[in-house]
C-alpha cells in the first residue's frame, strides 16, 4: 500500500516518513498505530494521532458528527491518557476510536473491567512496584531488557491472569536468563541475530577475555596512530644495529599493549626497508591480528548470549526455525506493551469510578451520572431518552426516575443550571461506551449510534451562525442509521420566535427519523404541541447560598418546565451592590421581578448562613 493512500498523508508527509523510516517501516507504524515512530520521523504528534485514528478506525470516526462531539472525544482521551503508565500506552489511548463492531465493544469492555478489578485487587505495595517497573521501562524507551524486567515485575505483583494472561504465559526462569543475557548487550538487539548473522553489540563487563582483547586493540591502535613517536622512543644512541632496534620495538609494543612479545614478533615483517617501515608495519599487522581476535571472541560471546536469550525478534530458535525458546523476548515485549495499554485504561476506570454500561439496541439512560470535566464535588444526575430499564433503579428517588419510551426531551431551566453540562455528560457516556470503555455513572444503558451530534450554545447572533448550525445538525439527522442529537439553546443564534419554530421542526424531524434527542431551550412555553414521543423536563434553581451563589438542584424534573427564576440573580446583585445608586437601580429591577420574592430570597440566604 502506498503511504499516500492513507488519510492525511500527502507527498511532503510521505517523503518525510520514507526518509525517516523507510516505506515498509512507515506502513507498519501506521497499521500498528505507533505514534512514537511517526513523531520520531518528524511529524507533529497531533497530526500523527489524526492520521492513525483514521487509518485504524475510519468507520468509527464517522460517529463524531460535529466539532463539539470531537472536542468531547479529544478531552475524554486526554483524560484517559493522563492515567497511562507509559508514554506509548498514552499514545495508543489517544488513537482509540468508536468501534463499529458491537462484539469488539463487548470484548474491550470485558478486558478493561477485568483489568480494573485486577488492579484494584492488588496490595498498595504491589501497585507501587508495577508503576515503578513501568517508569523504568519508559525511561529505558522500551528496551528489550526493560520489557523483560517489567514482565517479571508484573508476574511478581500478580498481574499475570485474566486480561494479563499473556504475561502469565511467559516462563519466569527463561525471562530471568534472558534478562541476565540482555544486561550484557549494549543497545537494541538486531532481530536477524537469531540466525547468527545479525549484530549484537556486547557491553563491556560481559566477558573478561573480550575486555582484555579490546583493551589491547585500543592500545595498539593508539600506537599505530603515533608510529613516529614509537620510533623515537625505541631509537637511542645505544642501539648499534637494525636487529637491536627490532628487538627494542617488539619489547616496547608488548609493554604498551599487554600483548605477549612472541605474538608481536610473529606479526613483525621480515623484509622491512628501514626502521620506520618496520615500526609502522609491525603496528599495522598487530592491529589486524587483534581485530581478528576481538571478532572471534565477540562471535563466541554473542553465540552464548543468543543461547541465554533464547532467540530475539519475532520468534525462532537459534537456527531461525521458529522454536519455542526463540519467542521469549519478543513475547515479553508484546505482552508488556499490551499490559501497559490495558492497565492504563484500568487505572482510568478505577480513578474515575467508572462502571460497565449495558449495551442495548436503542436508547441512552444513566443513573447517577457524573460529568468528568467538572472539578470538585459533582451532583450526580439520572437521565434518559429512548427505551430503557433504569426507571425503577435503586438509588434513584421515584420522582427522579427517568421515564422510558420518549424519543426526545426538551430540557429547560435556570441559567447556570447545568443543562449544557448534562448534554456533555450524555455525550461523554455515549462516546465512552462506543469505544468499549466504562462510563461515569452508577448504571447506564447505551445504544449503538452511527452518529453523535453534540452542539454547544454559541453566543453569536447572525444569519451566518444560524446557517452553519443548521448545516451542522441537520445532515447527520437525516442520514440512514441511528443518530443521537444533543443540541444547546437555538435561541442564542436567532430571534426567539423563529427559534421556537425551528426547535419544533427539529424535535418533529428527530422523532420522524427514529433518532434520539435532547434539546436545551428557554422557550418551552413558546413551543407548539410536541409529538407524543417527546417530553419537556426542567432544572430548578432553589435559592442562594450564604455566599450568594446560585443553589441549583441539577437533577431534572421530568415532564415539568424549569424556571429561570430571575429573582435569585437580582437578589444577588442587590446584596452585592456597594454603590448606593447602583443598589437603587437593582432594587428597582427587584420590583419588576417581584420585590417580595427578592426579599424572601435574601432572607433565606441569611438564614442559611446562620445555620451552616
UniProtKB/TrEMBL annotation:
SMART domains: MUTSac. PANTHER family: DNA MISMATCH REPAIR PROTEIN MUTS FAMILY MEMBER (PTHR11361), DNA-BINDING PROTEIN MUTS2 (PTHR11361:SF125). Keywords: ATP-binding, DNA-binding, Nucleotide-binding. The keyword Kinase does not apply. The lineage of its organism: Archaea, Methanobacteriati, Methanobacteriota, Stenosarchaea group, Halobacteria. InterPro entries: DNA_mismatch_repair_MutS_C, MutS, P-loop_NTPase. This is DNA mismatch repair protein. GO terms for molecular function: ATP binding; DNA binding. It holds the Pfam family MutS_V. It comes from Halorubrum yunnanense. Residues 406-590 form the DNA mismatch repair proteins mutS family domain.
Amino acid at each position: 500500500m502506498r503511504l499516500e493512500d492513507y488519510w492525511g498523508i500527502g507527498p511532503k508527509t510521505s517523503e518525510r516518513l520514507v526518509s525517516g523510516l523507510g516505506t515498509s517501516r512507515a506502513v507498519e507504524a501506521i497499521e500498528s498505530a505507533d505514534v512514537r515512530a511517526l513523531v520520531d520521523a518528524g511529524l507533529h504528534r497531533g497530526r500523527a494521532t489524526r492520521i492513525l485514528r483514521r487509518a485504524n478506525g475510519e468507520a468509527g470516526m464517522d460517529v463524531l458528527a460535529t466539532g463539539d462531539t470531537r472536542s468531547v472525544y479529544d478531552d475524554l482521551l486526554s483524560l484517559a491518557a493522563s492515567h497511562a503508565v507509559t508514554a506509548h500506552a498514552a499514545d495508543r489511548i489517544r488513537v482509540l476510536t468508536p468501534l463499529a463492531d458491537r462484539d469488539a465493544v463487548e470484548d474491550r469492555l470485558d478486558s478493561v473491567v477485568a483489568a480494573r478489578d485486577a488492579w484494584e485487587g492488588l496490595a498498595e505495595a504491589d501497585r507501587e512496584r508495577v508503576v515503578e517497573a513501568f517508569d523504568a521501562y519508559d525511561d529505558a524507551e522500551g528496551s528489550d531488557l526493560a520489557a523483560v524486567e517489567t514482565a517479571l515485575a508484573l508476574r511478581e505483583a500478580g498481574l499475570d491472569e485474566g486480561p494479563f494472561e499473556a504475561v502469565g504465559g511467559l516462563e519466569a526462569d527463561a525471562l530471568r536468563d534472558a534478562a541476565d543475557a540482555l544486561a550484557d548487550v549494549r543497545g537494541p538487539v538486531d532481530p536477524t541475530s537469531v540466525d547468527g548473522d545479525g549484530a549484537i553489540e556486547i557491553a563491556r563487563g560481559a566477558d573478561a577475555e573480550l575486555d582484555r582483547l579490546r583493551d589491547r586493540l585500543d592500545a595498539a591502535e593508539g600506537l599505530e596512530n603515533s608510529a613516529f613517536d614509537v620510533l623515537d622512543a625505541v631509537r637511542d644512541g645505544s642501539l648499534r644495529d637494525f636487529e637491536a632496534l627490532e628487538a627494542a620495538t617488539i619489547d616496547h609494543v608488548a609493554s604498551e599493549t599487554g600483548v605477549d612479545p612472541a605474538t608481536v614478533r610473529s606479526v613483525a615483517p621480515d623484509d622491512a626497508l628501514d626502521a620506520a617501515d618496520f615500526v609502522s608495519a609491525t603496528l599495522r599487522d598487530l592491529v589486524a591480528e587483534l581485530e581478528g581476535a576481538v571478532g572471534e571472541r565477540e562471535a563466541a560471546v554473542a553465540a552464548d548470549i543468543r543461547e541465554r536469550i533464547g532467540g530475539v525478534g519475532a520468534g525462532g530458535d537459534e537456527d531461525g526455525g521458529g522454536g519455542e525458546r526463540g519467542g521469549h523476548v519478543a513475547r515479553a515485549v508484546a505482552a508488556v506493551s499490551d499490559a501497559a495499554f490495558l492497565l492504563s485504561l484500568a487505572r482510568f476506570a478505577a480513578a474515575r469510578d467508572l462502571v460497565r454500561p449495558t449495551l442495548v439496541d436503542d436508547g441512552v439512560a444513566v443513573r447517577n451520572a457524573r460529568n468528568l470535566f467538572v472539578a470538585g464535588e459533582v451532583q450526580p444526575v439520572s437521565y434518559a431518552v429512548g427505551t430503557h430499564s433504569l426507571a425503577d433503579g435503586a438509588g434513584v428517588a421515584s420522582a427522579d426516575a427517568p421515564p422510558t419510551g420518549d424519543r426526545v426531551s426538551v430540557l429547560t431551566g435556570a441559567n447556570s443550571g447545568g443543562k449544557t453540562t448534562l448534554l456533555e455528560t450524555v455525550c461523554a457516556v455515549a462516546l465512552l461506551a462506543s469505544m468499549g470503555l466504562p462510563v461515569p455513572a452508577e448504571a447506564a444503558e447505551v445504544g449503538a449510534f452511527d452518529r453523535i451530534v453534540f452542539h454547544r450554545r454559541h453566543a453569536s447572533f447572525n444569519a451566518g451562525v444560524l446557517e452553519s448550525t443548521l448545516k451542522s445538525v441537520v445532515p447527520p439527522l437525516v442520514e440512514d442509521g441511528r443518530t443521537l442529537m444533543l443540541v444547546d439553546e437555538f435561541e442564542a443564534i436567532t430571534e426567539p420566535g423563529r427559534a421556537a419554530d425551528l426547535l419544533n421542526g427539529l424535535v418533529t424531524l428527530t422523532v420522524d427519523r427514529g433518532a434520539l434527542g435532547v434539546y436545551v431551550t428557554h422557550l418551552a412555553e413558546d413551543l407548539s404541541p410536541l409529538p407524543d414521543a417527546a417530553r419537556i423536563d426542567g432544572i430548578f434553581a432553589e435559592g442562594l447560598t450564604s455566599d450568594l451563589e446560585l443553589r441549583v438542584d441539577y437533577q431534572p424534573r421530568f415532564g415539568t418546565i424549569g424556571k429561570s427564576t430571575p429573582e435569585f440573580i437580582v437578589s444577588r446583585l442587590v446584596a452585592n451592590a456597594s454603590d448606593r445608586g447602583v443598589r437603587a437601580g437593582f432594587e428597582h429591577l427587584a420590583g419588576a421581578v417581584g420585590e417580595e420574592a427578592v426579599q424572601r430570597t435574601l432572607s433565606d440566604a441569611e438564614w442559611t448562613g446562620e445555620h451552616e
